[in-house]
Amino acid sequence: MKIWEKNYVLTMTLLITILFGGIFFIQQYSFYSNLDKCCENSLFNEGRLEYSIQPFLEDGSEGARLGWYCKSLEKQHIFLQVKKQNNVLADNRPFSWEGNKEKDFQIVRDGGGIYACIANTYLEPYNGEISIIYMEDISALYETQKKQMLLLLAAAVFIILLLSAILYSAMKKIYAPVSNIAHELRTPLTSIQGYAQYILLGNIGAKDIAFASTQIDEQARHINVLIENLLIMGNLWDGKIKMRQIETEPLIKDLKEYFPYLKAQSQVKYLYGDRELLLSLMRNLVSNTCRNGENVSLMFEKDAVTIYNEDDHLEEKMLDILNGGHAVPKEKINGKGVGVPLCREIARMHRGKLRYRNVPEGGVEIRMEMPNQKRFSS
Hints:
The protein is α+β, with helices and mostly antiparallel strands. It has eight helices and twelve strands. It has a five-stranded antiparallel beta sheet, with helices on one face. A five-stranded mixed beta sheet has the order 7-9-10-12-11. The two termini are 54 Å apart.
């Protein structure tokens, strides 16, 4: 497993732990708060009902009237057993539960549900010992809690999947160029080391030394360009870009210093964007395409920039990779490891998009649409 993938797994593990741990804590806190309120309400209802049944204990028809009254409470999911001096006056409990002699509160689970149960025994001057068992069905509270938990878990799973996709894409975008950079740096560094060792042998002529020195200089320039691209990418990720009006003629002049063979023309006097980024974009695009020949032309149009190389050609698979915004495989990098994602990002920052195509008459055309140019072109 790659280092960035390990970092991704560790980060997601931490996020999942925090998210699900937070959901569990919040849900439990909310549930027990609601349960406390429910229990307080049951205790209040039990005290109120003690007062309500007093009239039924003081007349001769107490059993029938009290039974009817207790039956009517079932619609509210409340069940009572009332005893007067061990004589059962009413009993519609859903299951058998006695409780303690003194006032006792318990939450009891039965096959039919979950109940807040209160047993209370007290003495009255005229009625003697009164025993009341109060049961209130609170299963709805637990069912609500279960549904809320399932909904929260479903939402958490959705959030985790969304975050994992975003994080995976972001980390891959950040770390993938690292391996490409290593691949690009290895070739020029190996070349520099080889030519340096060749010179150190000492048994070579001035012509060979000049050739080796030239190769070392070229490879060092290539490394310098890579480092410059890395710095530009860092500024892009930090959002440090300066959008302004740019004259095209000086831009063409700077490009020709890098590529004397470049045939550059402009139909407009100005571009709008970040000069350093656009210069880096053109350099990378021209550099990538001129590896297969130096018949390269560049045109600044009213709303686009077009680069064309008569000698270049791209495989269909490579075209799909470049136009689809996919990472370039290592075996197909060929010096494009940093340049390709850098060019895409610069184009995106200028609200443009790069399109690659093989021209039917021969050659490759790279075109970047620049919709912001129309109001600045002249």
